[in-house]
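Regression test case RT-17, inverse folding.

Input:
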């Protein structure tokens, strides 16, 4: 059962109900989501590679595997690249809120 005002909690409805997406990790002590120092640079690199315009999702998948050793499905890359959580927002019950978590990418890099 959920208690309190969950609109202030950071949840990613796209990738999972209340699980931190790739590049973040759940902090059970503070009930928040923190940047994962090991994986956050990988996520930023995924956005940089895709923003270069040189990659489709298929070539992005191969490049990330070769460069970062990270094996993800093409559909997961699509979810990452469309997930506004990385900009600092989250969805809760169909409404987008500004989160308290640190964004991993800028608006320019996201778009």
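Golden output:
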């Amino acid at each position: 059962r959920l208690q309190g005002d969950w609109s202030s909690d950071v949840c990613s409805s796209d990738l999972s109900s209340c699980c931190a997406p790739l590049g973040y990790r759940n902090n059970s002590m503070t009930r928040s989501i923190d940047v994962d120092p090991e994986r956050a640079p990988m996520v930023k690199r995924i956005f940089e590679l895709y923003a270069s315009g040189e990659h489709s999702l298929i070539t992005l998948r191969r490049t990330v595997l070769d460069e970062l050793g990270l094996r993800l499905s093409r559909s997961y890359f699509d979810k990452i690249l469309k997930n506004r959580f990385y900009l600092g927002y989250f969805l809760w019950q169909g409404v987008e809120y500004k989160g308290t978590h640190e964004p991993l990418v800028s608006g320019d890099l996201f778009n």
